[in-house]
Amino acid sequence: MSKMIAVCGAPSVGKTTAALKLAQEIYHSGKTSVLLLSPDLSVPCMAYLFPNSKDSELYSVGVALDKTDIYKEDVMAQIVNVKTMRNFGFLGFKLGENKYSYPKPTEDKVMSFYRMMNDCAEYIVVDCTGDSDDLISSVAKRDCDIAVQMFSADLKCMAYYASCVNEFLQIEGKKLKVMNCLDGDLYLPTGEITAHFGGMDFSLPYERALKQQMITGTLSERLGNCKYRSEIEKMAKAVIRSTEGRTEFPDGYGNDSCSGGQRG
Question: Are 121 and 26 contacting, i.e. CB atoms less than 8 angstroms apart?
Answer without folding.
Answer: no
